């Protein structure tokens, strides 16, 4: 069955950072199913190849690039390579992210820098590059993958919570500046999703706490992030900007 026209992403080029696994893979495949050409940007080349094969299987133009988003000098060349190979970027999903769990008292400077560079700084600098191209084409969509910790804070992930909080404010501030250029910038807030990142929380007491607090009574699957991402990438969301959309089985309302 064809997707309703307002969700049709044919003719779009999407970049998904960290698209080679977890939530990024789920979103990359969802955008491709809706018709977008997709570039996945991440460090592990074997995982890149594996998801690239899945994207190609869906019949859309796709590429993977080896990129460490903390290497600022490599961001523009990577985005230019995507445009050379696939065309003008109309969708950017800032998804690459890492977590370091340690008390604030013992948090090391190098961990702070690594987490903030990955989870916040890279999202801003990639967005800054993307909007330049989007402004020329008078349309664009940026989707930042934030966190419940953006809103509530975290028990032992100070840099993660600080970066993800900053990402929501970056989303809102850029949304204001670029709305007149028909560029919509929004954030998705996943609840607890079953990925490598959350493996430490998938057993023991913390698992029980999460399940109890999540009204849906389970972790989400990566594929379940795709629907909201397709919405935010499509014409269906042309009057939605600066918003945060929870995809969390109700976690935030408890
Ligand atoms: P995973 O650990 O499963 O995947 C992380 C992805 O980010 C991988 O593809 C990894 O690829 C990529 N990545 C990490 N560091 C870099 C880097 N320096 N440069 C390029 N790519 C990088 O995590 P999730 O899928 O769970 O998380 C995805 C996003 O969703 C993150 O921003 C996370 O904070 C957020 N999130 C996740 C939640 C969850 O419950 N899972 C909840 C809330 C938010 P590679 O290692 O090959 O570079």
Q: Fraction of residues in helices?
A: 40-55%
Number of strands: 7
- Structure annotation, total helices: 8
- Mind summarizing the main beta sheet? 7 strands, parallel
Describe the structure.
The structure is a single chain. This protein has about 250 residues and is an alpha/beta fold. It has one domain: Rossmann fold, CATH 3.40.50.720. Helices cover about 45% and strands about 15% of the residues. The chain has a 7-stranded parallel beta sheet, with helices on both faces. The mean pLDDT is about 95. The site of NADPH dihydro-nicotinamide-adenine-dinucleotide phosphate has 29 residues, from helix 1.
Summarize the structure.
The protein has one domain (5-246): NAD(P)-binding Rossmann-like Domain (Rossmann fold).
List keywords for this structure.
8 helices; 7 strands; single chain; binds NADPH dihydro-nicotinamide-adenine-dinucleotide phosphate; alpha/beta; 254 residues; Rossmann fold
SSE topology sketch:
Blueprint: E1 13-17, H1 22-33, E2 37-42, H2 45-57, E3 62-66, H3 75-86, E4 91-94, H4 109-137, E5 140-145, H5 149-152, H6 158-178, E6 183-190, H7 204-213, H8 226-233, E7 244-247
Parallel strand pairs: 1-2, 1-4, 2-3, 4-5, 5-6, 6-7
Bound molecules: NADPH dihydro-nicotinamide-adenine-dinucleotide phosphate.
NADPH dihydro-nicotinamide-adenine-dinucleotide phosphate binds at residues 17-18, 20-24, 42-44, 47, 67-70, 95-98, 118, 145, 147, 190, 192-193, 195-198.
């Amino acid at each position: 069955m064809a997707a309703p026209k307002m969700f049709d992403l044919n003719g779009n080029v999407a970049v998904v950072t960290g698209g080679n696994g977890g939530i990024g893979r789920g979103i990359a495949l969802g955008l491709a199913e809706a018709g977008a050409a997709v570039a996945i940007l991440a460090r592990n080349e074997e995982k890149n190849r594996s998801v690239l094969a899945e994207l190609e299987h869906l019949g859309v133009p796709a590429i993977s690039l080896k990129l460490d988003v903390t290497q600022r000098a490599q961001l523009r060349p990577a985005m230019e390579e995507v445009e050379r190979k696939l065309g003008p970027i109309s969708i950017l999903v800032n998804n690459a992210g890492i977590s370091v769990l340690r008390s604030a008292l013992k948090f090391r400077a190098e961990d702070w820098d690594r987490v903030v560079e990955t989870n916040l700084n890279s999202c801003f600098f990639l967005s800054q590059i993307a909007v330049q191209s989007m402004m020329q084409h008078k349309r664009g969509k940026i989707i930042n993958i934030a966190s419940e910790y953006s809103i509530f804070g975290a028990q032992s992930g100070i840099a993660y919570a600080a970066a993800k909080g900053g990402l929501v404010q970056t989303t809102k501030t850029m949304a204001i500046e670029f709305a007149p250029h028909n560029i919509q910038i929004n954030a998705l807030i996943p609840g607890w999703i079953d990925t490598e990142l959350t493996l430490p929380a998938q057993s023991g007491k913390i698992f029980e706490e999460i399940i109890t607090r999540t009204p849906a009574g389970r972790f989400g699957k990566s594929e379940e992030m795709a629907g909201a991402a397709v919405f935010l990438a499509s014409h269906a969301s042309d009057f939605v900007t600066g918003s945060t959309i929870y995809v969390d089985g109700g976690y935030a309302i408890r």
